[in-house]
Amino acid sequence: MGENFKGFTKRSANTEGLLMLFWKVVRKATIGGFQKIMFDIQCVDPEAYDWIKNIPPKFWADAYFPRSRYSHLTSNMAESFNAWILSAREKPIITMYEEIRVQLKARFEEKRELGNTWSGMLVPKAQELLDMRKMKARFFHNFIRHGHAV
Predict the structure, then answer these.
(1) Which domain of life does the protein's organism represent (predicted)?
(2) Rounded mean pLDDT of 42-70?
(3) C-beta of residue 2 within 8 angstroms of C-beta of residue 22
């Protein structure tokens, strides 16, 4: 949609300003913020506002998307993955696919070997956390209340 909007705004005197507002409204997380930026777009270029309003915001605006599209974790994972495959990204598609496949295979093998060194049912960090919480829980007491305040 961004490229379509960019093409639509080329006739406008304030193309850069409209594009900036467009990307702000796309990424705005709240409906109130979305409506404020839409009002700003309407003030700058009523035709651009009408063009945007013809497309239901649930398809392109974060504020109206029913679930979280992405979070910091997802974004960070995508950035890490893109950095990890950087050398492969510039290659033809089949070569890129093969390089990524080999990288993933090596990573999975490395993690499998690491997992084989663990003795418990849980990964070491989870076991450590569980043990710590069990130690703290030793000092808790369970009281059974009698009467109507249950």
Answers:
(1) Eukaryota
(2) 84
(3) yes
